[in-house]
Design brief:
about 425 residues; alpha/beta; 6-stranded mixed sheet; 8 helices; 26 strands
Length: about 425
């Protein structure tokens, strides 16, 4: 029997993570509303329309070196043993137009970035010339047409599409847009995400802890994860395991949030009512309750009025795994990102210990990284998902797909960096 067929027989009640995620993605929009911003405010934002260059870059043919502008034909055959002599016509100043024409047999001194005058098509570097007197230079090396120059429009041409819709802007993109004189652009607005912490046992971080109580960890973890994506967290506070309190918190969040995250309340216990509340509020409601993944198996995924609502497990490690596996792709779609590139940083490392995995389940294993003998090594951090120290020690996660039965020591793995 093939592994895939065996996996399907193991547990038909839980969706694979990829299938569960697709259920939500299919019901939410490609991008929230857009806004027009000054270029300085656009780092990390996503373009909501194609950006077309209004001009050529560079706007004129310019030198890439310090030297002398020449007609390349005048330098052919030049070498140290038989130099070619040219008359110095003029000096080109940085930031000024070269408002003269270079004739055959003439040269003009030019700085890096200076404008080539009409009649010149190349630049001879300073180290390849010898000054004879203030009127004459020796050319010790020939240059080809357009050598040591950038031609007008060679970088970006007027009317050319510089960036496509759905592109997440990096610092180099911002610089390029500034270079073609674009001051403002249309980008998708930031995604607003509500965090609702639930549980009678959860208390604020500054409260003394009684037996049976736990300080709120997940809202702080989620706040950091959300901010890393460029989105805006809205911390709604801690709510008791009370139907009406949680329902009110969700209804309030639907008014001003694009995504709602509910920490806790995903198991099948008597007080775990999150799924019922989601179904009672609106359609289509809960799309799945539980996925074939560890940690994070009891996650709830739902949609109300095109807004995704996710019930996250209470264990901190499971929260991080569920965020990266489900929430991050949802954020990227609402941000308007259309590129298939994964913006999470990944590295390749060699596994120092074998990892076992159950068939039919996607396992997320925490690892720490170290460099030894010029090789990057990944060591599994094994422990229960509720242990905070495993999160602190971990540098990243290795994902074992549903159809893989573990990874052997010494194999190379892809590590998703936290």
């Amino acid at each position: 029997m093939f592994i895939a067929e065996y996996i399907k027989m193991l547990d038909k009640s839980y969706l694979f993570p990829s299938d569960a995620l697709e259920k939500i993605l299919s019901l939410i929009p490609n991008g929230v509303t857009s806004e027009r911003l000054n270029l300085h405010e656009c780092y990390g934002r996503v373009t909501s329309s194609d950006i077309i260059s209004p001009e050529d870059l560079p706007a004129f043919t310019r030198s890439t070196v310090d030297g002398y502008a020449v007609n390349s034909l005048d330098t052919f055959g030049a070498k140290e043993s038989s130099p070619i002599y040219l008359t110095i016509k003029n000096e080109i100043l940085m930031g000024y137009e070269a408002n003269f024409t270079l004739m055959r047999g003439e040269a003009a001194s030019i700085p890096t970035g200076g404008m080539l005058p009409p009649g010149a098509d190349a630049v001879v570097m300073l180290e390849d010339i010898q000054l004879v007197d203030k009127y004459t230079i020796e050319i010790l090396k020939s240059v080809a047409p357009f050598e040591n120059v950038i031609q007008k429009g060679e970088d970006i041409k007027r009317g050319e599409k510089v960036l496509s819709k759905g592109h997440k802007l990096r610092y180099q993109d911002i610089g390029a847009l500034a270079g073609i004189g674009i001051k403002e652009i249309d980008v998708y607005r930031k995604v607003f995400i509500s965090i609702i912490s639930t549980g009678d046992e959860i208390v604020p971080v500054d409260s003394p802890v009684k037996i049976g109580q736990i300080r709120d960890i997940n809202s702080y973890t989620l706040t950091g994860l959300i901010r890393e994506t460029g989105s805006v967290p809205i911390n709604r506070g801690i709510f008791r395991d009370d139907y009406n309190e949680i329902k009110t918190a969700i209804l309030n969040s639907l008014e001003d949030s694009d995504i709602i995250l509910i920490s806790g309340g995903t198991s099948a216990g008597n007080k775990d009512m999150t799924a019922d509340i989601i179904n009672d509020i609106g359609k289509p409601g809960v799309l799945f309750h539980g996925v074939a993944m560890k940690p994070g198996k009891p996650i709830i995924g739902g949609v109300i009025s095109n807004k995704p609502i996710l019930g996250l497990p209470g264990h901190p490690a499971a929260v991080i795994v569920c965020f990266n596996r489900f929430v991050r792709p949802i954020i990227e779609k609402l941000m308007g990102i259309v590129s298939e590139k994964n913006f999470l940083k990944k590295v390749t490392a060699r596994l120092t210990k074998s990892i076992a995995s159950s068939a039919g389940r996607e396992d997320h294993i925490r690892v720490y990284l170290e460099k030894r003998d010029n090789e990057l090594l990944a060591t599994p951090i094994l422990g229960k998902s509720g242990l905070i120290t495993t999160l602190v020690k971990a540098d990243g996660i290795v994902i074992i797909p549903c159809d893989v039965l573990g990874i052997n020591e010494g194999e190379k793995v892809e590590v998703m960096i936290h």
